[in-house]
């Protein structure tokens, strides 16, 4: 079983990288990618744990990018974690996240929700890159919302009052960065992006292909299973390989445990072909 999209405590997951690998092994994972948000910090620990657990490890990252006014996530698989340009990009992203966290906190202050960033640091003392998910869990901890999805719907989503646009790299630049680091660029969970027109999806995929993107996340734990059919059709239309991943962050979240995302539909080419890895 393969899982090419997971997160650890190095970004916004609950598990230390080594513990994530152990959990993956318990659930039958044979090929695992760690793809933390805009950071490589967990890779070395996860790689060693995978070696000890006889799991094929794929070093990865999930880059935040801008395409027009929409934040798009691009997964990089099989990257060179010693690539200087990629490491510098991670340093820049960490600074952007610090600045954004302060701005989000100020938005909550204006909404009458005081000191939420301080609570994030209490709940997550080891956090380096604060994400919107950390704010969502702080809201949940305070009882302001009933679940994390409500936190995004009411406060943190792209059209909500505490959302702060961020100067992420352009989509084409992020794809180029991944390839300069020897990796494969995958457009993550496409149906999580909310566009006013269906034509925007075609424009996004064409932009991704033009930038050198090679794969689409067809099967994702952060999309409902029915989405896989539509994503498979897009992959075929644009000549993209199909990737698959749980988008695992924690137990008892909407995303499934590692490698328990929906299966890839028939008729797509798995990205493992590009990675020279087994497809199951």
What's the helix and strand layout?
Blueprint: E1 2-3, H1 17-26, E2 31-34, H2 43-52, E3 56-67, E4 70-77, H3 84-110, H4 116-123, H5 132-142, H6 148-156, H7 171-180, E5 184-187, H8 199-211, E6 215-220, H9 227-237, E7 241-245, H10 272-275
Parallel strand pairs: 1-2, 2-3, 5-6, 6-7
Antiparallel strand pairs: 3-4, 4-5
Reading side by side through the largest sheet, how are the strands ordered?
A: 1-2-3-4-5-6-7
Distance between the termini: 5 Å
Listing every helix as H and every strand as E from the N terminus to the C terminus, the arrangement reads: EHEHEEHHHHHEHEHEH
Work out the strand percent: 5-15%
Outline the low-pLDDT stretches: none
Query: Could you say which structural class the secondary elements and strand pairing correspond to?
Result: alpha/beta
The helicity comes to 40-55%
Q: Count of DSSP E strands?
A: 7
Described by the principal axes of the CA atoms, the overall outline is globular
Radius of gyration: 18 Å
Helix run count:
10
How is the quaternary structure best described?
single chain
Report the biggest beta sheet as strand number plus sense, adding barrel if it closes: 7 strands, mixed
Give an overview in words.
- By secondary structure, the protein is of the alpha/beta class.
- It contains 10 helices and 7 strands.
- The chain has a 7-stranded mixed β-sheet.
- Helix 8 (199-211) links the parallel strand 5 (184-187) and strand 6 (215-220).
- Helix 7 runs parallel beside helix 8 (199-211).
- The protein is globular, with a radius of gyration of 18 Å.
- The N and C termini lie close together (5 Å).
- 47% of the residues are buried.
């Amino acid at each position: 079983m393969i899982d090419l999209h997971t997160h650890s405590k190095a970004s916004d997951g609950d598990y230390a990288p080594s513990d994530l690998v152990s959990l993956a092994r318990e659930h039958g994972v044979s090929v695992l990618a760690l793809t933390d948000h805009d950071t490589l910090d967990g890779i070395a620990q996860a790689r060693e744990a995978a070696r000890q657990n006889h799991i094929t490890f794929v070093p990865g990252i999930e880059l935040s990018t801008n395409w027009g006014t929409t934040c798009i996530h691009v997964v990089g698989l099989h990257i060179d974690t010693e690539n200087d340009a990629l490491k510098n990009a991670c340093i820049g992203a960490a600074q952007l996240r610090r600045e954004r966290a302060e701005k989000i906190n100020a938005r909550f202050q204006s909404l009458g929700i005081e000191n939420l960033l301080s609570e994030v640091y209490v709940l997550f003392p080891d956090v380096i890159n604060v994400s919107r998910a950390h704010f969502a869990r702080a809201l949940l901890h305070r009882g302001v919302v009933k679940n994390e999805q409500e936190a995004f719907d009411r406060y943190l989503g792209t059209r909500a009052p505490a959302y702060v646009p961020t100067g992420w790299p352009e989509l084409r630049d992020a794809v180029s960065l991944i390839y300069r680091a020897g990796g494969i660029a995958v457009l993550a969970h496409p149906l999580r992006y909310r566009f006013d027109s269906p034509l925007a999806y075609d424009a996004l995929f064409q932009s991704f292909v033009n930038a050198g993107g090679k794969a689409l996340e067809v099967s994702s734990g952060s999309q409902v299973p029915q989405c896989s059919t539509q994503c498979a059709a897009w992959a075929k239309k644009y000549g993209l390989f199909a990737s698959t991943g749980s988008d695992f962050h924690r137990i008892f979240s909407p995303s499934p445990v590692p490698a328990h995302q929906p299966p890839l539909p028939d008729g797509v080419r798995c990205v493992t072909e590009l990675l020279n890895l087994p497809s199951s």
